[in-house]
Amino acid sequence: MTPHRTASREQWLSERLALLAEEKALTRQSDELARKRAALPWVRIDKDYRFDTEQGSASLIDLFGGRSQLLVYHFMFGPSYQAGCPSCSAIADGFNGTQTHLQNHDVAFWAVSRAPLAALLGYRERMGWHFPWASSSGSDFNFDFGASFTPEQQESGIVYNYQAEPPVPRAAIDDASIPSRATPDGASRGASSASTDVASYARERPGMSAFAMQDGEVFHTYSAYSRGLDALWSVYTWLDRAPLGRNEQEYWWRRHDDYDAQPAAACCSCAKG
């Protein structure tokens, strides 16, 4: 006997139609949010950000590639990481096909991380991806757009996803052997999977930012973080329609080539906020 309640086809259809009405209302609400998102004011970018790319040094304007819009995924891959964040990697599994459609809709797409370009490209090859990936090493880009933080910011308490987090004790920042309860859940396992210390791992966070270019000037239009990225994670869209839903009793995701090799590792904050 299944523990879940059962019903006749007629009863199921009646409840499904009631749920459909709620789904349609949510869709309309989502459409309205999208309009409000597009109506946000733009902020002019005056700083000269530089990136390392396969084509050489590039400016933020260069990342547009002649298009008028640019979407950036802030991929958690810090300078000390030996591999990318597992949950960022799960999200990125959906980028290859999406990128093609974006490019043909006047939207450029890039992943950006602070690790050296060689590390990013090596990991991309391991994962079988081909979307463009730039290194912002030596640039303030990820810091300015709320996806990377300094040890000093950790010690005083960072602001991520527009919310303040508790300070991290300096001892936990300086001594990699000391885990801190002030770092977000899952950071220790994520750090282990990336072969770095917890404090360094938690200084990188997932996010996305959108930019527009008009008359040769670049504007910041939107950024989202943490669970604001759920809609970009295609596997969640499918799980939300599976019989048991997300069924996340613990952090479960791994890199796609790790499922048969090691226990699940967690991103520090993708499932929070």
SSE blueprint:
Elements: H1 9-38, E1 43-44, E2 50-53, E3 56-59, H2 60-64, E4 69-74, H3 86-92, H4 95-103, E5 107-113, H5 117-127, E6 133-135, H6 141-144, H7 151-156, E7 159-160, E8 163-164, H8 170-174, H9 187-193, H10 198-202, E9 207-214, E10 217-225, H11 234-239
Parallel strand pairs: 4-5, 5-6
Antiparallel strand pairs: 1-10, 2-3, 4-9, 7-8, 9-10
Tell me what the structure shows:
The protein has 273 residues and is α+β, with helices and mostly antiparallel strands. Helix content is 35%, strand content 17%. The protein is built from eleven helices and ten strands. The protein has a six-stranded mixed beta sheet. It has a two-stranded antiparallel sheet with strand order 2-3. Strands 7-8 form a two-stranded antiparallel sheet. A hairpin with a 2-residue loop joins strand 9 (207-214) and strand 10. The protein starts with 8 loop residues before the first helix and ends in a 34-residue tail after the last helix. Residues 177-184 and 265-273 have low confidence and may be disordered.
